[in-house]
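Q: What would this chain look like folded?
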Amino acid sequence: MDWFLASRAIVRRMKTPEEWQKWLEQDCPSPRDSESGLVVLFAKRSTESSTSKARQTTEKSLLGGTEVELPMQENFVQSSHPSDMETRRQNDEKQDSYSAAVRHSLRTIPFSRNTFELITRAFYMHSSISRVISRADIPVFTHTKAVMEDEHGSKHDVSVFNLRTSNAWPVDLALTVTYFHHCNLKFAFIFGCDLKVEEEILSRLRLAGDDATHPLLLPGIIVEIERRRHVQIVDDIVNEVEARIHQLEVSPDTEEGMTTSQMEKSNKDKRSAWLNITYTRNCLQSWRKQLENIALHVDEVNRILLEGYGWSSNLTTPPPTPNAYEECPLINEEEIPIDLAQVVPEHSALCHEQPSERFVSIGCKIKSRTLAIIEEYDDKIRECSLRIEGMVMATQWAQGETSLEITKATSRDSKHMRSIALVTMLFLPGTFFAGVFSMSFFDWSGNNGQPLVSKYIWIYVLCTVLVTLVTLGLWYFLNIYRRRLSASNISAV
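A: My prediction, written as structure tokens:
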């Protein structure tokens, strides 16, 4: 089987539906022509602004010695402000404040329904990408085998790779790659690109050279971009949690000087930090699982290549209908210019060489790098787990220190009470007898100079005895008898 090595790159930008239709009908590669290559379409977000001059300069510098075909200057979307590039960078820095609606903007593509229908047919886009994009909060990687029918009615075996990153944070991406085995032709559609992501992907494709022909290289590039995003997110949340852990060391005396609103805000921040790092760890674990799937499917792609572009016996997913790619689940009413990076194939000295061994070697590199990234994610997951456990431990320590302070304060109060009780014991007899003998029941100097005792002293004795008995009875009923009654009722139940 002939193998066409892609040796030059063309970057094009279409603005109008007529330009799209002309390119798709005349210049877009077709699997019927048995041309190898990689066709990548970058679909920016609906909120993304155009920076034509900066983009033109960037494309030339990124592609280096490759061929760049751009429309005439009048076709560019001109910036109305000379500092548009700086404004664009400021907008990128404000991505953390995106609303939930913007985060779901992968479902809003930057061109009209008719244009998108033409692209889906020309790019042989599989309908499974719709389900992948809909799972916004969950990262997904899928590999589906299918049979696609070209414009001339010929059927071809293809592999469809779909990848979607989580929209829990800004700058989420989605990718679909349709890989034709018989001619090594790949169509890729990347959703949600901004200028920085597009620059990085083009730069990595240029550096990859001939390795860009592997069907899993683009998913590998998305994995690298997502890794950098996750590293920054984990570092930020770890620093925040460590700051909250230090706040747990505040003594009870300091907390007494805080207002109620300050206490509520501090507690809310601590809870939010714990919830954020726990959610981040769960997301990292979900994404790690998808990385394992990518590494696993590298082996499956290698088996496909070694079997002469036949299906591996271990691939059990049933193929979809031949015309499944004709579905159009994602639409938008507006027409916004996008960018297309196309690697146009050329014959080379390797035209008649079997690509299987080369692809297997490239696949081993991709798998090795994916496994290395998985190990890095394991470290990040352990960092999150360490901070979660550290926050739990710090909370327990803070509670233990608070309990110790309460115990010490209780001990000090107990010592004071013992002192008070001792003083009371010393002065109570004297106070009692002083009060008794000072009553009018006793007359120490009577008419004849003799002490007299009133005949009504029995009233004092009777009232004292009755009140004492009532007090003791109430104490016994409230503190002893009622508790025993409750305990007996519970045991009976």
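Residues 8-79+100-397 form one domain.
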